[in-house]
Design a protein that fits this description.
Mean pLDDT: 85
Number of helices: 1
Structural class: mainly beta
InterPro entries: NA-bd_OB-fold, SOSS-B
GO molecular function: DNA binding
CATH topology: OB fold (Dihydrolipoamide Acetyltransferase, E2P)
Oligomer: single chain
Number of strands: 9
Low-confidence stretches: none
Shape: globular
Protein name: Nucleic acid-binding, OB-fold containing protein
CATH class: Mainly Beta
GO biological process, one term: mitotic G2/M transition checkpoint
Keywords: DNA-binding
CATH architecture: Beta Barrel
Distance between the termini: 31 Å
């Protein structure tokens, strides 16, 4: 399993990780596509997680979720972690997981690696915390 702080943008479904859902945004529907954005975290970092279709109702704040074959990529000019077409998400527990909310991997500007065009590297931190899910305190 990979830690959230170690994920990088890629065009392949290869992320296997586990995290806790901290907060869910509201569900939006465009045509037949239902989506919901969530803030998730593990003990190393946080990230925005895109839920699709039935996943929007399947998970709530406090759920511990395992992602198999996930992808970290752009969705509407924002970096999000998601299951994609070949990935799988499942609830594996509730409430008992250590986590941090910074850094937020979705709030980092990623650029192509000059030494390897198939990889991305961190260029700058846009915001240390989620701008979509601001801290309550």
């Amino acid at each position: 399993m990979i830690s959230l702080r170690d994920i990088v943008p890629a065009a392949q479904n290869n992320i296997n990780t586990q995290f806790i859902v901290l907060e869910k945004g509201k569900t939006t529907t465009e045509g037949q596509n239902k989506t919901c954005l969530a803030l998730v975290a593990d003990e190393t970092a946080a990230v925005h997680f895109q839920l699709w279709g039935d996943e929007c109702e399947a998970f709530e704040g406090g759920d511990i979720v395992r992602l198999a074959n996930g992808i970290f990529s752009y969705n509407r000019n924002s970096m999000v972690l998601r299951a994609g077409k070949r990935g799988k998400v499942e609830k594996v527990g509730e409430f008992t997981m250590a986590y941090v909310e910074t850094p937020n991997m979705s709030e980092i500007r990623w650029v192509p690696d000059p030494n390897n065009s198939k990889k991305y590297i961190q260029e700058a931190v846009v915001s240390p915390r989620s701008r979509i899910f601001p801290p309550k305190y």
